[in-house]
Amino acid sequence: MAAASLFGADRRLCSADILAPDEVRARIEVAVLNFLTALTSPTSPAISVLPLISRTSANCSLRSGLLNDVSSVYLSYAFSKRSLMRESNAVAFVRVWKVMEMCYKILGEGKLVNQRELFYKLLSDSRKYFSCQRHVNRAIQDVVSLLRCTRQSLGVMASSRGALIGRLVLHEPDEEQIDCSILGASGHAITGDLKVLRKLNLSSDARYIIVVEKDAIFQRLAEDRLYNQLPCILITAKGYPDIATRFILHRLSQTFPNMLIFTLVDWNPAGLAILCTYKYGSISMGLESYRYACNVKWLGLRGDDLQLIPQNAFQELKPRDLQIAKSLMSSKFLQESHRAELTMMVDTGKRAEIEALYSYGFDFLGKYITRKIVQGDYI
Amino acid sequence: MAGKEKRRNAAALDGDEQRLRRKQEETALLLRRIKGFVRWVVEEVAAGRSPSIVIHRYRNYCSAADSASPSPCSCSYDAPVGTDVLSLLHKDSQTSRLNVLLRVLLVVQQLLQQNKHCSKRDIYYMYPSIFVEVAVVDRAINDICILFKCSRHNLNVVGTTSILLMGWIRFVEGEKNVNCMKNVNAASSIPVSIEAIKDLVSVAHYILVVEKETVFQRLANDKFCERNRCIVITGRGYPDIPTRRFLRYLVEQLHLPVYCLVDSDPYGFDILATYKFGSLQLAYDANLLRVPDVRWLGVFTSDFEDFCLPACCLLPLSAEDRRKAESIIARCYLHKEAPEWRSELEAMLQKGVKFEIEALSARSISFLSDKYIPQKIKQGRHL
C-alpha cells in the first residue's frame, strides 16, 4: 500500500454523491440509454457489461487526514463487471436493472421505502430473481456502485437502530426541542432518514461521547444517568453500526470538535471490528461510509482490564471470532496498539464481556469509565 | 376545531389535589401494613416458629391439554387458582423466595418513605449476588403485590419508557406540555409516567396500535394522521408495562375504540394477545393492564385475496413458527373469550403461511395508509 498523501488519495477516491431525486432519475436514464445504444449499434451490437466499483479489500486503501486525526477507508476505481454473458453473473446482472427500475418509480412518486418494503415490491414484481432479503440488499449496493449515488438518494431509507441519550438538545427546525437528558432508559431513537439528521440543530455542554456496543449496557448507563456525573453523551447502534448512527456521530464530532469520542466494547474481535467501523468506515458501503469516519478511541474493555475480570467470566473464542480476527489482522488500517490487543486475544484464545464487571456492584461500571477517562487510559 | 368534533376531555373526577391526597393516604396505609407484616415475621422468629406465608397463585391462562373439548379450567382474572406457601425453614427453593421478598420489601419501604421511584433493574443491582437475575426480583414484586393486594406502581416500582406516539392528542405530564396536535405527523418519543398526566384532550376517533416501529414510520412518512383523526401508538414489539398502562389509561379516559395492527404470524398474534389478555408473568396485574376491547384490525391471510395481493408475498411458516402457533392455540382464554381469533390462527396454521404488513407495499408504497387501514375501519372489518 503506497503511503497516500492527502491530495493523491483524493484523486483516487471514488465516492457516492448525495443527489436529489431528479438527478438520480437522470443517471438511471443515462444508464438505460447507454445500454440501448450499445444494443442497437448498427456496426457491432452488444449487451454491455455493468461496471461496478469493486467492493473488495483489494480495492480499498487508507487515507489519513493531514489536519485532523481522522483516517478512513476508501474505494478506488477498480471495477468488477456484471455481465449477462457469464452464467454465474447473469441473475445478479438482471437484479441490478430490476432494482433500478423500482427505484426509478419510487423516486418518481417522491417517496422513501425501507429495505423490507422494497423486498416485497420486488418479490411481487419479479419473483424469479429475488427470493430473500439478502439478494435485495446486495443488488441495492450494486446500484450504488454503478450510479455512484448514495443509498438514501435512491429512495431507500436506512434502518433506525441506534439510540442516544445524555447532555444534548436536538432541535429540528419547526419542531419542539428534544432534551436528551430527561428521557427514559431506552433513549432517543435515531431516525434512519439522513435528510432529517442533516437538518438537526445540536447543542450540548458535554465533553465526551461514549459509544456503547450493546443495548443492555447503554440502558444500564442510561438508568444510572451517567451523564449527570460525567458530562457526556451516550450513543449505541446495538451492534454493528448502521449508517444513521455513524452519521449522527460524525455530525456531533464536527459540531463539537473538542469532544473526545470513546468506545466501550466487549473484549473480542467483533468488538474491535465495531470500533474499526466507527473509526475507518466499511468496505461493503465503501462509497458512502468514508464520509462518516470519526476519530474514536478504545476505552474498554482492553488487555490491562483483564485483571479485573473473574476467571470464570472468560469464554473461549469461537471459530467465527477467529475468522473476524484473521480478516482484521490482514487489513491495512489497523493501528499498532490495536493490533497488539488483537494478538493478545488470539494468543490467549479468550474473550470477555463488559457485564463481567458487574460482579463489583452496580455502580462499578460508571466509576470504571470515569476513572479511565480521567487517567487518560485509552488508545 | 369544527363544531361537529367532540372534544373528549379527561374525566374530571379527579382534581389534582384530590389525586395527590389519595396517593399519600394509600402510601401511608401501605407502609403501616408493611410494618405490621414485618413485625409479625419478627415475632414468629423470636418465638422459635418458622413463619409461613401463604401467597395466592394467579393464572390468567393455561394451555388446555385437549383442545377439542377443553375441560373448564379455573383460570380467571380475579380469582386465584391455588396457593404457594413460603417459609424460612423449609429447605427448598421457597426459602430464598421469602428471603428475596423481605429484601425487596426493605427497598420498597425506603422508596415509599422517601417518595422516590426506581425500576426493578435498579433493585436487582442493589444485591446482585443474592438476586442472581432480574426475573427473581420480578417474582418477589409480584408476591408483594399479591400479599398486600396492590399494584406495582403503588410500590413505587416503575420503569419510565419512551413511548412512540403521534396524532390528535395533547396532555400535560408533570412540568412538560406534550402537544402532538401541533404537528400530527411528527412522532413524539416521550417518557410517560401515568401518575403525572393531567389535562388530557383528544379529538381522535380511534386509537391505532401498531406492532413495529417501521410501520409507525411508514404511517408518519405518509402523513396518515393528517387525513385520519386518530392516535397512533407503538410498543415496538412486545409492549412493556408503561406502554400497556398508558394505553389502558387512554381507553379509560377517552372511551375510544382501539384497533391493533400486527403481522399475520404467531409472534404478531402473541403481541396482540398481550394487549388484550395480559401476559402470564404478570397474571395478577393482568386485570389492570389489559385492554379487553382491543379489535384485531389485521393483517389477515384473507386480506391478501380481498385486496388482490400477489400470492408470492405469503411466506411459509417455519417449524418454530408452527410450534409457537400451536402453543398459543392451546391457551384457554382463546376458547373462552375469543373463538374467532382462534379460528383465524387455526387457518394460519392450516394454510402454513405468514404475511408481513410490509407486503402491502407490493400494491403501492402507501397502500397501507391510503386504502387498507381507512377501508377496513370504515367497513368494520376487524375481529
Which key terms come to mind for this protein?
heterodimer; A: 379 residues; alpha+beta; Dna Topoisomerase Vi A Subunit, Chain: A, domain 2; 6-stranded mixed sheet; 3-stranded antiparallel sheet; 14 helices; 15 strands; 42% helix; globular; disordered N terminus; B: 383 residues; 4-stranded antiparallel sheet; 15 helices
Descriptive account of the structure:
The complex is a heterodimer of chains A (379) and B (383). Chain A has 379 residues and is of the alpha+beta class. Chain A has two domains: 7-47 and 83-154; 163-375, 3-Layer(aba) Sandwich (Dna Topoisomerase Vi A Subunit, Chain: A, domain 2), CATH 3.40.1360.10. Chain A is built from 14 helices and 15 strands. Chain A has helices at residues 6-12, 21-39, 87-109, 115-125, 133-147, 194-199, 215-223, 226-229, 243-255, 269-280, 286-289, 319-329, 336-348, 364-374; strands at residues 50-53, 60-64, 71-75, 79-82, 163-166, 169-171, 177-179, 188-189, 201-203, 208-212, 232-236, 260-264, 296-300, 315-316, 350-351. In chain A, strands 8-5-11-10-12-13 form a six-stranded mixed beta sheet. Chain A is globular. Chain A starts with 5 loop residues before the first helix and ends in a 5-residue tail after the last helix. Chain B is an alpha+beta fold and 383 residues long. Chain B has two domains: 2-49 and 90-155, no CATH class; 164-379, Dna Topoisomerase Vi A Subunit, Chain: A, domain 2 (3-Layer(aba) Sandwich). In chain B, the strands form four sheets. In chain B, strands 7-4-10-9-11-12 form a six-stranded mixed beta sheet, sandwiched between helices. Chain B has a four-stranded antiparallel beta sheet with strand order 1-8-5-6, with no helix packed on it. In chain B, helix 1 (16-46) crosses helix 2 (93-114), helix 3 crosses helix 5 (134-148) and helix 12 (319-329) runs antiparallel to helix 14. Chain B is globular. The relative contact order of chain B is 0.11. Chain A binds chain B through residues 106, 109, 111-114, 116-117, 119-121, 123-125, 127, 157, 159-160, 174-176, 178, 182-189, 191-192, 220, 223, 358-359, 361-363, and chain B through 119, 121-122, 124-126, 128, 159-162, 164, 182-183, 186, 188-189, 191, 213-214, 217-218, 221, 309-310, 312-313, 356, 358-362, 365-366. Chain A: Its EC number is 5.6.2.2. Chain A: InterPro entries: Meiotic_Spo11 (IPR013048), Spo11/TopoVI_A (IPR002815), Spo11/TopoVI_A_N (IPR013049), Spo11/TopoVI_A_sf (IPR036078), TOPRIM_Topo6A/Spo11 (IPR034136), WH-like_DNA-bd_sf (IPR036388). Chain A: Required for meiotic recombination. Mediates DNA cleavage that forms the double-strand breaks (DSB) that initiate meiotic recombination.
